[in-house]
Amino acid sequence: MLSWPEQVVRVQSLSESGIRAIPSQYIKPLTERPVFEPGSLVHQHVDIPVIDLHNLFCKDPTLHLDTLSRISAACREWGFFQAVNHGVSHELMRRAREVWRDFFNLPLEVKQEYANTPITYEGYGSRLGVEKGAILDWSDYFFLHYLPVSLRNQSKWPEQPSSCREVIVEYGGEVVKLCTRLLKAMSTDLGLEEEYIKNAFGGDNMGACLRVNFYPKCPQPELTLGLSSHSDPGGITILLPDRDVSRLQVFINDDWITVNPVSNSLIVIVGDQIQVVSNAIYKSVEHRVMVNSAKDGVSLAMFFNPKSDLVIEPAKEVVSEERPALYDAMTFDHYRLHMRMKGPCGKARLESLKFNTP
Ligand code: OGA
Ligand code: NI
């Protein structure tokens, strides 16, 4: 049976133990370490897209098309954007963050009841990948299935705090609505039928998983990462970022750029399966998370994925003689095995799917 290769250490416990130097398993090679530029203005010229979704399905065609063209540009050039007026209640976002912060603040024994294994990853975890001796990330997480309903197993969701399950259902419901609207917009922009991507992902059987990331304080943030560089393997991710500290970085034009979330925004991240379906018209974005010595943080990533046994391939409509299919067809189950075994690896997995790679 598949299990963790080493004894699991909870990063939160390590952080709370008051150590001044982080153990060597968390020290990244020099080239992967974050660069801290306190007070730096270096990236001010970079205009990270912030898109107001209020008019996305507005009756006025000019306003609708204007919003659609912004989404289009962001997905083609950046692979992500910040969404405001996204329809998810701000109060609910606050409650979702709070209830999960309360979960991570429960005594260790309570959380351990949900300890996960690398078979399904569901539950309370502290690593991705099962390679013995791997360099680990400075974070703990909780992972659960939200959709399809057949995979939803509330007994694997935290029983405490008492409102946790209810908040997950409420928050998940609103984020699913947002995702549905975004997939329609993306399909239309790619010249596909409005429901194309949703249907390619299994329609109402599409997968949705929630990963709540907890980033404990770190005494040496310059040596490690909260989450190593990766692109999200699924379709799209809707991320509720940490409120107080900018931690997320995206790799754009050969440079790591820190995202400063605007108030009450949600971050939309294009994943690998959308890059495949769009035949690389849309790009999945490589991203990573930095840690902080003064503040811990919580983020909620809701991943929308193809139903796991469906074969995903470039849509016929975006493939032509001039632009042949770039990727091999593959089920999502098979695709994500790489991340589940090896942990985060930049965009190496997607690159390996390209035809004619040696
Ligand atoms: C993820 C992710 C970013 C964050 O969970 O895949 O990229 O800010 N999270 O926690
Ligand atoms: Ni991610």
TrEMBL record:
Belongs to the iron/ascorbate-dependent oxidoreductase family. Its cofactor is L-ascorbate; Fe(2+). One of its GO terms (biological process) is regulation of jasmonic acid mediated signaling pathway. GO terms for molecular function: dioxygenase activity; jasmonic acid hydrolase; metal ion binding. It catalyses: jasmonate + 2-oxoglutarate + O2 = (1R,2R)-12-hydroxyjasmonate + succinate + CO2. It comes from Hibiscus trionum (Flower of an hour). InterPro entries: DIOX_N, IPNS-like_FE2OG_OXY, IPNS-like_sf, Oxoglu/Fe-dep_dioxygenase_dom, Plant_2OG-oxidoreductases. It comes from the Eukaryota. SUPFAM superfamilies: Clavaminate synthase-like. Keywords: Dioxygenase, Iron, Jasmonic acid signaling pathway, Metal-binding, Oxidoreductase, Plant defense. Residues 205-306 form the Fe2OG dioxygenase domain. This is Jasmonic Acid Oxidase 3, JASMONATE-INDUCED OXYGENASE3, jasmonate-regulated gene 21.
